[in-house]
Amino acid sequence: QVQLVESGGGLVQAGGSLRLSCAASGRTASSSAMGWFRQAPGKERESVAAINWIGGNPYLANSVKDRFTISRDNAKNTIYLQMSSLKPEDTAVYYCALGGGATTIMARTRVNYWGQGTQVTVSS
Known about the structure:
seven-stranded mixed sheet; four-stranded antiparallel sheet; single chain; mainly beta
């Protein structure tokens, strides 16, 4: 059984910051990377960021690459999404994902598991 648990969401003013965490448990060895997606009501889920367990080079969507960073703690099986300069359009449910590689997660071609999501709300 593989489980992904997100935390760190909440309400923040525009221009503020939040850090999301995702802890993975279970048999995750077959997946080489983790990442983040987000989905606003009535909109399609979009890729945000991803990172490989080996190497650790970050991949970020163009819409967030100047404001967000992704990192990982291999010993804790945990990834983080540091979000700065938040905008109202960043409001969404943020989902953690586990997949075969960072590039395939970003392309949504190999996502094996999903977390239940954490709400991020940015007020104007």
